[in-house]
Each structure stands twice: as structure tokens, then as C-alpha cells.
Amino acid sequence: MERTHTVAELVMSNVEKVIVGKHEEVELAILALLCQGHLLIEDVPGTGKTVLAKSIARSLGCSFRRIQFTPDLLPSDVTGVSVYNQKTAEFEFRQGPVIAQIVLADEINRATPRTQSALLESMEERQVTVDGVTYRLPTPFMVMATQNPIEYEGTFPLPEAQLDRFLLRMSIGYPSTANEIVILDRQQHAHPIDSLSQVVDAPELLSMQEAVKRVYVDPLVKQYIVAIVDATRRHPDIYLGSSPRGSLALYRTAQARATLRGRDYVLPDDVKALAEVVLAHRLILSPAARLKNVSTKATVAEVVSALPVPGARVRGVA
After folding, report:
1. How many independent structural domains does the chain possess?
2. Residue 291: Cβ-neighbour burial (10 angstroms; 0-12, 13-18, 19+)
3. Sign of torsion, CA 55 60 65 70?
4. Distance CA 268, CA 257 (A)
5. Residue-wise DSSP of 132-150
6. I want to staple 109 with a disulfide (CB 3.0 to 4.6 A). Which of 67, 115, 155, 244 is the partner?
7. Range of 100's domain?
8. At what angle do helices 219-234 and 244-260 cross, to 10 degrees?
9. Quick one: 180 and 240 in the same domain?
10. What pTM was estimated for this model as a whole?
């Protein structure tokens, strides 16, 4: 566990050579990677969404592909297509950009729902099917999708089924004045990402992902996770609460957060800290709540604050 914590800190410090003053956001991205999950970054243009994805890929030495989503993008442009070869008289599969270890789906809400759905199988099943033939995706595999705010013109809101497949949703936000000056200084002659080095390889990352699964979660903490998710299903402002996938996501991310804190056990504070980024995008508000401008983030915060926090106890002691 100590090795996993050390290497994760090394990756985060390497990424922060490029992403300045956003330690919490970088930690969430690494957390999603350790959980073998996918990340949705929702923010205005120019805040570093694309650079964050590139920095993580370079730090890991993983293959990286970028898909620029536009209204005329077709599903085959994402997954790949079979092309007939006249010399061999056979169909050959030409891989789409989704077949990589780190995939950046840039401005995913610019594409039509049909094209957005092309990511569903790859995100959930870690495979793509083209013309009846299934192709496995490489490991590790992670989709980092960026999204402009829904109120912008020319966007297509992601359907609930696809939102639910993202482990986390977060925003990066603008840097502080001091950090923005640091960014100007660092990019005076060249972009820092050009000199970013690899600090860990793919096999090491896979072993770290397995180590996260061994972090101890007390039954009381498990009950706390389920209680939070169950409360979203009964809240008067929520039309549709989180599914069991939300419980699993909160469980796994809490394990990863404990690892990043150098612990081999989960605390209720880990669950509380992650409830908003894990659950808010999985909820659908009631029409009355939307009229009152209630946000899903505020609703999750209300749910968490209303539930009693379980006490701590030594592992294995009732």
C-alpha cells in the first residue's frame, strides 16, 4: 500500500508541473484512474481540461488519442470501420481513436446522441463491436471527456445512461491571480507539457489499481454509503435517485482516496468528501425543484449533512 501511495504522489506532482494550483482536481483525476473509471470534466474553454488529460497520459507512458466531437461526427469515426481490401479480397478493420489507453473525448456534448452512444460499449464493456466482430480495448483504459456548459448554444445534453457511466464529474475552474502569473512565467518560452517525462509505466499502474481494491471498508462505512445513496431515492426534490452503480462508485472512490492519503482503510470522511462529485451527475431533479433553481450538488450536500456519521472502530472488532 505504501508503494501505491508513493507512486500516486509521484504522478500527481508530475502532472502539477503543468496544471498549476489545482491539487484537488488533479487528485480527483488520478483517483478516477486508480478506480479504473471514467472522468467527465465540465467547464468553460481554456481552463486546462485538455492539458490535464495529456499530462496524465504522458506521466503514465500510455497511448493517447483525442477525439474532437462535432455535430457531423459519426459513430464509425469513434469506434473504427471495416474496409474492403481488393488485393486480399477481405475486410480489414481500421481502428478508431477510441482504441487507446487514455482517450480524450473533447467537447463530447457537441456531438449528436447517436455518436455519443458509440462510447457506451467501450466505457462499460471495455470493447467495441464493428460489423459483428468484437475488439478488446487495451489496459489500462480510461475515457476523459470534456464538456461545455449545457446552456451554450449548439450542444446536446448527455443522456442519463451515459452520464451514469462516468465515475466522477468535476470542474477545474479559473486559477487564482498568483497561479495565473505562474502559468504565464512557465509558458514564456515553451509549454511545460513538452518536457514532461514519464514517471510510471502501465504494468505498475495496473498493480496500483489492484492494490486499491484491497483497502479495508468497515461494514459501518458500507452501510453509510448505502444510506446516502438510498436517501437520494427518497428525497422530495429528486425525481430519480442514484442506482447501485452510484453505491459502487462511492465505495471504490473512497478506497482510492484512502490510498492517496496513505491509509489502508476507509473513513466516513472519505465518503463525505466524494459524495458530491460521484453522485450529483447521476440524479434527476423533480420539475418543481428545477423551477426553484435547486442544484443536484446542493441536494447531495443536504442529504449528506442530514445523515448520522458512523463511529470509528478497530478492524475486526464488533
Report:
1. 2
2. exposed
3. negative
4. 11
5. TEEEEPPSS-EEEEEE--T
6. 155
7. 2-208
8. 140
9. no
10. 0.89
